[in-house]
Amino acid sequence: MLPMIPNPTIQHLQSDPTMAKLITHCGPCDLKPRRLSPFQSLTQSIIYQQLNGKAAGTILKRFRALYHGNAFPKPVDVVKTSVDQLRSAGLSRGKATYIHGLAQFAVDGKLPNLRQCDKMTDAELLETLTAIKGVGRWTAEMLLIFNLGRPDVLPVHDLGVRRGFKIAYRKRQMPTPEALDRYGVKWSPYRSVAAWYLWRAADMLDGMEW
Fold first, then answer.
1. Please, what is the Cα angle at 144 between 140 and 150, to 5 degrees?
2. What phi, psi does 131 have (nearest 5°)?
3. pTM of the predicted model over 0.85
4. What is the DSSP code (8-state) at residue 151?
């Protein structure tokens, strides 16, 4: 059985009648932080950008195989790997360059570790992470939600979240990021959980009457 999200979260989100209905329909939220190293989390996110899960998973497996071990490679090991060697795993030149640059960013001591991340605000982390070439706001927000477990992040540019809002709230068009940001204020300080339910709406309710 999936773990229940805390009652205060449910009670707060259920003050929005549509969100309350969505919570009832989709069931308990299973959002749990992965707590990978930020380097691993961001590397995997870069690999998965604009690819389906199966293709990205294959490339990730080949990337890890370059280092002949069970553990995820350390930044210093990736820095020693040429962009062309990284491309041999199936990465585009752009992604290989981004991952190499991310590794150098970490080696230079600019990428916070998990303990350091835990001491930083969401805004501080977004500013730090988006300074890395190839890491946009969406990628940084995914790290905050899925890796660090930050509770109040609403990725308003995510197409799945916007599409889920359109479906759940019976809108003719997807909301603009600005409109979704304004509406989402009512879900704070639990916007990450609200986003999770909007993703479920996009997955479960597309084309359904509910």
1. 155
2. -75, -10
3. yes
4. S
Measure the CA–CA gap between 185 and 170, rounded to whole angstroms.
19
Cα atoms in the Cβ-side hemisphere of radius 13 Å centred on 126: 12
Residue type, position 147, single letter: N
Tell me the one-letter amino acid at 33: P
Tens-level pLDDT at each residue, the chain (210 residues): 344 455 789 999 999 999 999 999 999 999 999 999 999 999 999 999 888 889 999 999 999 999 987 889 999 999 999 999 999 999 999 999 999 999 999 999 999 999 999 999 999 999 999 999 999 999 999 999 999 999 999 999 999 999 999 999 999 999 999 999 999 999 999 999 999 999 999 998 765 665
Beta-carbon contacts of residue 140 (< 8 Å; ≥ 6 apart): 125, 126, 129, 130
Q: First-to-last CA distance in the chain?
A: 24
Beta strands in 42-159 (DSSP E): none
Separation CA 168–CA 194 (nearest Å): 12
105: amino acid identity, one letter: F
Please report where in the chains the tokens 């707590």 appear, as a residue. Answer: 35
Tokens of 109: 């001591």
Whether residue 183 contacts residue 194, with contact meaning beta carbons closer than 8 Å, is answered with no
